[in-house]
Amino acid sequence: MLAALPFNATAQQFEGQPVTMKIKVNTPKDEHEESPRMPATPILVYQDGHVFTFNPAFNGCIVKLASNDTVVFVTAVDATGIISLPETFIGYYELQLFLGTATYSAIIELPNNSEN
């Protein structure tokens, strides 16, 4: 099912800096389960300050922002694919996208917009 979704967008579709989200395994692999033949395709999202643009195909997927393994913010991707994080968050965080049983994550840096 996951392979049928269009995970990535091209640079012409969105503005901002590309961020690559890689898959994290949520459940331990069963001893009898075969290893996957290919790694999961990473997801490409675009960051412009505190605004992230996901492919709209991820509408309804949960996005969490974590710091030191503590979730500090939760939202969902809407039909536009855009999420805005509060500007009070500054520094490095882990951005997590939950897609079915998979979690995709990336370390991001959120800027201090008040310095501009």
Brief characterization of the structure:
The protein is an all-beta fold. It has no helices and eight strands. The protein has strands spanning 17-24, 43-48, 51-53, 62-67, 70-76, 82-84, 91-99, 102-110.
Structural summary, described in words:
- Residues 1-12 have low confidence and may be disordered.
- The protein contains no helices and 8 strands.
- The chain is mainly beta and 116 residues long.
- A hairpin with a 2-residue loop joins β7 and β8 (102-110).
What overall form do the CA principal axes indicate? globular
Average pLDDT confidence is 81
Question: Which segments are poorly predicted (pLDDT under 50) over 5 or more consecutive residues?
Answer: 1-12
Q: Please provide the ordered H/E string of secondary-structure elements.
A: EEEEEEEE
Counting DSSP H or I runs of 4 or more residues, the number of helices is 0
Strand content: 35-45%
Distance between the termini: 44 Å
Helix share, percent: under 10%
- Output the radius of gyration: 15 Å
User: How many E strands?
Assistant: 8
Across the major sheet, the strand order is 5-4-7-8-1-2-3-6
Largest sheet: 8 strands, antiparallel
Indicate the structural class.
mainly beta
